[in-house]
Amino acid sequence: MKIIVIGAGIGGASAAIALQRLGHDVVVHDRMRENKPVGAALSLWSNGVKVLNWLGLGDQVAALGGAMHHMAYLDGRTGDELCRFSLAPVTDQTGQRPYPVARADLQGLLMETVGTENIHLGRELVSVVDDGERVTATFADGSTDSADLLVGADGARSVTRDHVTGAHEGGPRVERTYSGYTNFNGLVTADPAVGPADQWTTYVAEGKRAAVMPVTDGRFYFWFDVPQPAGLPYDRADGTAPLDEAFAHWAPGVKALLAAIDPGRSLNRVEIWDADPFPTWVRGRVALLGDAAHPTAPDIGQGACLALEDTFALATSLATNTVSAEDSLRRYERSRTARAGDLVLRARARGEETHGYDAAKTAAWYDSLRGNDGSGIIRGIVGNIAGSPVNLGVGSL
């Protein structure tokens, strides 16, 4: 079959690779005009890494992954260590080492594997028409493309989703909900004044967070969470000014991190939104994947991993069901909506606990971190991974 994939992000590109390796003719369209990934890095927990292994990219992805052996929480204002523990149990219990990766590195690898000749940039989707036999995508430049199936991996503001839910025909529209905080992220050179080079280090206080994770080439992926209203003005020329104000009185490690940021080189500002889980991912020969199907906050680090799980489930369904293409997509939908919805709500609950919306709840969380042996935190991380469908996968695709 010919299959159109809308979106060349982690979900869209990984789906394209899987579908190519099943023998399909795959064409990817993306609205971006050049390969400039949004966001500095992402967490690849064991379930996400296993999908990439299944795609045959295990060695390449491992080479991109940071050596993250420990996890620690520190008091944001004093720098005092609240707890520190090994992440080895995650590997032991899941059978795969997790690691953070720079988003540009991973997306570059995936797009290269898809093949640049199969990816068309500068194509902004405006409509989808499914006549029961062929699906036609129309783009803002007036061009069109038709195929047997269309996979919408076009992100949280998905145009494909409006087709699937019928919103473009006056049906219900999936509305996003502001999570209550803004995230600033980027890449800096690793600095022991901030945290050890093999550790996920998080400073917490006042409902705010400042954290670093190691990625390759001696770098830290950093992020700051600042609870604030949506829609506040920000000009890129402001650089780190909002962070300097929000974290001016924090520990020396946080000040060292702020001093290391080069806003012109690597600093992103993202308001965090999610959406209530919804059951309709498929309509006829059109299916949703990734953030188009489950916009989620990053509070449990499963956004990219869920998109990779979607890839595994979609490819498996198309490879193992023979009634019809539409039937295969419906089975894909049924295999994914409950799990994805559960993790979206877990991430939302985690964000509500950590960002001070209920001061007593966040204070109790801080208290629970003092002297914590990590067992409960590990149990939560593994719990997010345990239900992954990829645990059934064997070998490479």
TrEMBL record:
Keyword list, A-Z: FAD, Flavoprotein, Monooxygenase, Oxidoreductase, Purine metabolism
Catalytic activity: urate + NADH + O2 + H(+) = 5-hydroxyisourate + NAD(+) + H2O
EC number: 1.14.13.113
InterPro entries according to UniProt: FAD-bd, FAD-dep_Monooxygenase_BioMet, FAD/NAD-bd_sf, HpxO
Domain FAD-binding: 2-344
Pathway listed: Purine metabolism; urate degradation
Protein name per its UniProtKB record: FAD-dependent urate hydroxylase
Necessary cofactors: FAD
Superkingdom of origin organism: Bacteria
Family the UniProt entry places it in: Belongs to the FAD-dependent urate hydroxylase family.
Matches recorded under Pfam families: FAD_binding_3
Annotated source species: Isoptericola halotolerans
Alphabetized Gene3D superfamilies for the sequence: FAD/NAD(P)-binding domain (3.50.50.60)
